[in-house]
Amino acid sequence: MDTIKKLRQKAKKDLKTIVLPESEDKRIRQAAEIVEEEGIAKVLLLSQDKIDSKEKERYIQEFYERYKNKGFDIERVKTLFEDPMYYAAMMTKEAKVDGLVAGATHTTPEVARCCIRCLGVDEESKFISSCFIMVVPDCSYGEAGTFIFADCGIIPEPSALQLACISLSAARLAREVLEIKPRIALLSYSTKSSEETASNKKIRQALQLIKEMAPELLVDGELQVDSAIVPEVARIKYPDSVLKGRANILIFPDLEAGNISYKLVQRLANARAVGPLFLGLKRPASDLSRGCLVEDIVDCIAVTAIRAKVY
Questions:
Q1: Within this chain, do residues 13 and 106 fall inside the same structural domain, yes or no?
Q2: What's the domain range around 54?
Q3: CA geometry: angle at 271 spanning 265 and 274, to 5°?
Q4: Mind listing the pLDDT tens digit for each residue in 179-235?
């Protein structure tokens, strides 16, 4: 059974409720029908008529009290809550639903800001980031063609500590959602270079932090992508690597590299890109590309439902 089928089957056990605040989008409605018909999850299409006015007012007041000392006056908060996404996020915060999926009609920054403000950042994770589950057809690399790419949507220029935290969050997702042993590669333009560039120095610092924070993890860097995922190349370029060219989690040095890479693999290799999945929030939430297909939305709902089982 391929990865996508496994994810959908896993989501069907102990059904969770996922809120979809972009109910006016045709793709969202079609995806909701498929999810319900296949028994992948329960969905709440949050149209305006399903919003309780008293609850909305309570959410507005709660949000205002939390952020009034950070430049949010009451009128600004009321404007934010004209968007059902904020109501949906507050529902998720209170566990009235189990997870949130949005992004078909919102940008990633809009969805991320809403989730950070309403759901909050998990203290253990320290930072919010994002990842994609990439499923590449007819591919023997990674985990039989399955990878996690991170960060592809949130942190433009991650520090060494942020790279380390992104790696730990991605490893957790690999274990809990994909049920695979994480093998993490910190990617670079070079493999164990003797050069002391700012980028290479940052990656080496991140590697050391990961080893201190989670010594049980299989992780290495800095590595070129072929050294990270192709065993034959790893034997030539870096035979002493603990990964041996078998990485299944690819950590990119910056947002440009991550975003460009996932889109290239998605389009040129006809890969399924599930996400962006937000990492580091207190409750499960996922973003969507505004160019997403119906099947992409279904996959994102399935993964968000799986994640809700372990939060």
A1: yes
A2: 1-120+288-311
A3: 100
A4: 999 999 999 998 887 677 888 899 999 999 999 999 999 999 899 999 999 999 999
